[in-house]
Amino acid sequence: MPPAFIRHTRLAMIPVVVACAAATGCLGGTYNPSYFPYYLPPGDVIQTHAKPAGLGYFANFDPKAIRLDLTPASCTLPTKTRHVLVATVVDKDGQPRRKRRVEWMIEGAGNIIEVDESGYLPGRGYKVDNKYAVSYTDFFEHKIARGSSDPRDDVTIGPGQTWCVVSSALEGVTTVTALAPEVYDKDRGTVTVKLTWADGAPGLPAPGPGFPAPTVSRSGDERTHATKLVHAGAKDEPLTFDVRAPKATAIGRETPIAFELANAAATATQPATLTATIPDGTEFVRGEPPPSSQQGRTFTWAAVAVPAGQTLTVTATVRPTKRGTFTVDAAVETADGYHAKHAAAIAADTAGLKVTAELPAQVGLQAPVSLDVAVANSGAVEADNVTVWVTLDASLAPASGASPVEVPVGSVPAGQTKHVQVPLTAKQLGHAVAKVNATADGGLTDKTEAATEVRKAATLAVAVSGPDQLALNLDGTWQVTVTNTGDVPATDVVARVTLPASVAGRTATDGGKLAGTDGAEWQIGTLAPNEKKAVRVTATADKVAPKASVAASVVAGVPGARTQAKGETSLTVIGQPALLLELADHPAAIPVGQKATIRITVRNRGTGTAKKLEVTATGADALKIVGGTGADRKPGTVNGATVTFTLDELPPGAAAVFVANLEAVAPGTARLQVDVRGDHLAQPLHEEQAARVTGGN
C-alpha cells in the first residue's frame, strides 16, 4: 500500500476516533454510564421548564391532561425498604396520556432513590437532589425489575405512566407530593401521600424484607399499582392505624384530629396505648375521650383493647395560634409488640372575606328586584359561618318584611365564591341603595353597597288596525302595535291576537306562531321606554258574521309584577252576491201601433245582499219605451228610449221582477237592451232581445 494512501487514511480516521472518545468520556467530559451497545446518545442532564414560555405559561396549554392519579395510597412500611410510586396522567375519558411531566417532591424522612429516566433526550427524567425529581409518562409499556430471579418483584409501567422510588433508613413520615404541570386544575393535578416508616413491627409478604412485592391490577387501559403490608402480631388480618385531619384550617379555629385503630381480626387486640404530640403554635382544647396523662405537649390515652371487627376512635381537638404548617405525630403500641406511627400535617392560615353586590341599573315602581350578593374567600382556608346582612333605604322593601335582612351563607371554601339572591320590591321613585355587610368566624368582615334607580313602571299600550268589513272568502290583514309608555324597559313582552269564529288565521309576521286558526302569539322580548313594535296577522273570511271583533292583548314582566293592555277592532263579514238576469219572451211580431210588455227578472244566487241595484231597458227606433213598473210596484223613470228602475237591496236567494212597456212605431226589426248595475258589480249585467215590428192589422 502506498505511504501517501496510508497517511490520508489515518488523517480521515482522526475525527471518528475523537468523536468516539468524546462519546465514551475518554476526553475527560461528562457522560452517561454505558456499555456497548448503549453508548449513544451521550451528554449532560438538561433541566427544562414545566410550562411553555410567554402567554402559554398562563393558559390551559394541554387541555387533554385532566387528572393525576398516584398509587399506592398512604401506608406504613418497614425502614430500609424501597417503595415504588406510580403516577398516571389521564384525560377526560380516563385514558392515560403519554409524555406528560410529573414532578416529585418529598418532605420529612426518606429520600428519592430513583426516578423514571427512560428515554433518549438530555431533557428526559432526572433527579435534582434527594428531595426533588422530574419524570415523564412513558410512550410504551416497560417493566421495572428488582434484579432478582423472582418475577413477582417486577412492576409493569404502562403507557401514560411514570414512577419514582422512595426509601428511608430511619423511622418517620415521608410526605410525597406529585405534581402534573399540564393539568390546569391544580386540585386535580396535585396528589399527596404519606409513607410511615417503622422498624421491625411490620412484616412483608414473600420474598421477604427489602423491595416490596407489588401487584398490578388492570381495568381496561388504566393501570393501578398497590403494595400490601402484613403487620407482625396480627392473627387473621392486620391491625391498621390511621390519622384523619383536614388539610387546612383557620388560625384560632378548633380543629378535630381523629386517630383510628381498626381491628379486622376475629379476636380482640392486646391493650393498645396511643400517644399524640402537638407542635408549638397549637393549643390542645380537649380530647374525646380525655387523655389519661400529659407530659409537655405529648398526650397519652391509656391502654384499651380493640374488640374484633371494630374500630377505636380517639379525637383530639387543637387550636392553631399562628400561620404555618403544623404536624401532629401519633403512635400506637400494643402489648404483643405491634406498633405504628402516623402524622398529620395541617396548614394553618386565615380566610379572606370579600363581598360584592349588584342591582339592575333601573327598576320599575312596585316591581320585584333581586339583589345579587357574591361572597368570595381569597384566603387559604375555608371561611365558616358566613352571614350577609342587607340594610335597605325607604325605596326598597325586603320580601321577608324584616330589615336588615339576614342571609346565612354557610361555609365558603378557600378560593371560591358563593352567590345569594335577596328578593326585594321597589317601593318609592328615586335613587335606592342597599348596604351589604358580610361576617364570618374569626372576626372577618367586609361591606359594600349597590344602587338602582326606581322609575315609573313599564306601561303597555296596544292598538289594533285592519278592515272593518270583509267579504266572504277574501283575506284581511290586521296590525297590532305594542308601545311601552313607561320609564323602564318592559321585559318578557308577549302579544296575542284572538280572531273571531268567522275568520281563519293563515300567516303571522315577525316570528309569530299561529294558535290553530283562532289567533297568533308573538314573543317580543324587551321593549325599551317609548319603543314600539308592530306585528301583523292575515286571516281569511269563511263565515258570514254581521257583528264580530278582532281582539289583541299584551302582557309583560314576571309573576307578581305583570303589566298588560288590551285592544280590539270591530269586523263584519259579508257574503258575495251573485246576480242572474233573465228576460221573458215577447210576441214574435208586433204590429205597428200595438203595445207589448217584457218581464225583466233579477235573481240573487249568492251569499251576500246586492245593494243599490239599477235596471235599465233601452228600445230602438221601431220599438219605443213608453213606461214600466219596478219591483217595488213603482213606475220606472222614462228618459227618451230608456226606462230605469232602482232597488235598494236584493237579499240572497231573492228575485226582483221589473216590467217594461213597449210600443211598436215603425215596421222593421228592433233590439231591446237591458243592463243591471250594482255596488258590487265592476261591470253591468247585459242582455239583448230582438223584436219584429210588422206593418199593422
From TrEMBL:
Transmembrane segments: none annotated. Coiled coil: none annotated. Residues 477-549, 588-679 form the DUF11 domain. InterPro entries: Chlamydia_OmcB (IPR051172), Ig-like_fold (IPR013783), OmcB-like_DUF11 (IPR001434). This is DUF11 domain-containing protein. It comes from Fimbriiglobus ruber.
